[in-house]
Amino acid sequence: MRLPAWHAHPDVWLLFGSAAAFYLIACRRHLRDTGESTEPRRIRLFVLGVAILWVGADWPIHDLAERYLYSVHMTQHILFTLVAAPILIAGTPAWMLRRMLAPRPVMAVFRLITRPLVALVLFNAALLFTHWPAVVTASVHSEWLHFGLHVLLTGSALIMWWPVMSPLPELPALPAPGQMLYLFLQSLAPTIPASFLTFGDHPLYPVYATFPRIWGISALTDQLVAGLLMKLVGGAILWGFIAVVFFRWHDREQRDGWDPLSYRDVEREIRAGMSR
After folding, report:
1. How far apart are CA 30 and CA 48, in angstroms?
2. How many C-beta atoms lie closer than 10 Å to residue 204's C-beta?
């Protein structure tokens, strides 16, 4: 088993190195100006999120995804959308987000697109668009289009995760039952495209059938693996989050006691949050 020959991706190094540097500089300036330090845990999470994006966009994953295997292309997208995106939100302090959203038009648009139903639609529309055969074919022949699609996918993933991960009281996350319902709906969304990949009897992406076969993996087997990754690995990540939300909620209820009247308030919050 041999990987593609290594070659440098200085644009990737510059992009993600700059992102980490700007974040750390902003944290340092915030400390100097306000005396408020950024939690070390948040800094570690943000750097980890950037590192995951870096791994997905650099050799060998980038080269395998663009020139050999669609299953690695799918792995790349899972890293960007279901692993890096929630970690980046968890690693971004509230004061930094408030600065980014300070202009009123920006806040108004962000408030709209992070409504749960809107966020689900936007993310899954971006997912469908970036996996459309004609778009995939065009992207493997254009570095800039490939980069643009990754920006679109990662940006839509940040929006999708907001109703679960938001650290801002003014743009709050859903209550725990709402988060579980929201993530459950998201876990169902990729079922249809994954089924086309898993059960297809001909290559859905003909361009990948023209690439050199690496490690003896046929185009149909590659497509099958991509479908299983989308459904099983993606689903496992989402259900892992559902489990974490559930047990945290359970522990909180055990600690504070369960009140049916307060649960009615939760129901109202879910309905309001899903339609806000």
Report:
1. 21
2. 19
The DSSP code sequence of the chain is: --PPPP---HHHHHHHHHHHHHHHHHHHHHHHHHSPPPPHHHHHHHHHHHHHHHHHHSTTHHHHHHHT-HHHHHHHHHIIIIIIHHHHHHHS-HHHHHHHT-SHHHHHHHHHHTSHHHHHHHHHHHHHHHT-HHHHHHHTT-HHHHHHHHHHHHHHHHHHHHHHH---TTSPPPPHHHHHHHHHHHHHTTHHHHHHHHH-SS-SSHHHHTSPP-TT--HHHHHHHHHHIIIIIHHHHHHHHHHHHHHHHHHHHHHH---HHHHHHHHHHHHHHHH-
Residue 47 identity: V
Q: What is the pLDDT of residues 15-43, one digit of tens each?
A: 999 999 999 999 999 999 999 999 999 99
CA distances from 224 to 62, 72, 205, 276 (A): 20, 12, 12, 39
Q: For residue 260, how many other CB atoms are within 10 A of its CB?
A: 6
For residues 60 and 4, is the Cβ–Cβ distance under 8 A?
yes
Least confident of 137-141, 163-167, 182-186: 137-141
Distance from chain centroid for Cα 224: 22
Which residues, at least 6 apart from 28, have a Cβ–Cβ distance to it below 8 Å?
Answer: none
Using alpha carbons only, what angle is made at residue 86 by residues 48 and 71, rounded to the nearest 5 degrees?
80
pTM listed for this prediction: 0.90
Is the predicted pLDDT of residue 180 greater than 60, yes or no? yes
**C-alpha to C-alpha distance for 47 and 212, rounded to whole angstroms:** 35
